[in-house]
From TrEMBL:
Pfam families for this protein: Arf
Magnesium in keyword set: yes
Family (UniProt): Belongs to the small GTPase superfamily. Arf family.
Record's protein name: ADP-ribosylation factor-like protein 15
Coiled coil: none
Residues the entry annotates as binding GTP: G58, L59, T60, G61, S62, G63, K64, T65, G104, N161, H162, Q163, D164
Positions that bind Mg(2+): T65, T82
PANTHER family: ADP-RIBOSYLATION FACTOR-LIKE PROTEIN 15
Amino acid sequence: MSDLRISEAFLYMDYLRMSECIQISFAVCRIGIYTCFRALCCKGPPPARPEYDLVCIGLTGSGKTSLLSKLCSESPDSVVSTTGFSIKAVPFQNAILNVKELGGADNIRKYWSRYYQGSQGVIFVLDSASSEDDLETARNELHSALQHPQLCTLPFLILANHQDKPAARSVQEVKKYFELEPLARGKRWILQPCSLDDMEALKDSFSQLINLLEDHEAVRM
């Protein structure tokens, strides 16, 4: 075979090898693109966050509305004290809390129990810097709520609000004054200090409540 024919044969073999490499590269690219497409577009919607229905109670001035509005990223200028009741959907990363906030005035508190039905958890907000008389009233209302048949087995979050005020009582003082240890024995409950100035602590309190709600629902099921 002449040198020319041998050279042509080698060139043809190189061409075949190059063509094969190009085809393999295109195949790999197609597989990669398809895999990315499946990952991005065919994953389906993320699982729905669980929702819990809560009731939020406390005396007028305890700060219930302000705390819930802050958690919902609402403007503080739009906060108006609740006179009857209001409902807010408070979103968290792992759950949505549908909070029914009840007004805390004297003429409304006697109707609180009418709104307890269907609750899966309870939030009680107290003004830790309030007068002795108001603190005594808050104590009586909390005891009444914790002993109510529709609430007595539910997870409780007690927020000692206004910790940023000089007259604020510590969590230990609140626990002792409200006699929480004997009152809440056998219940799932949390007592946490809070203020509008410390949103991280407030969010952490609600995260702990969500954990209690998840555990409570798991036991029920």
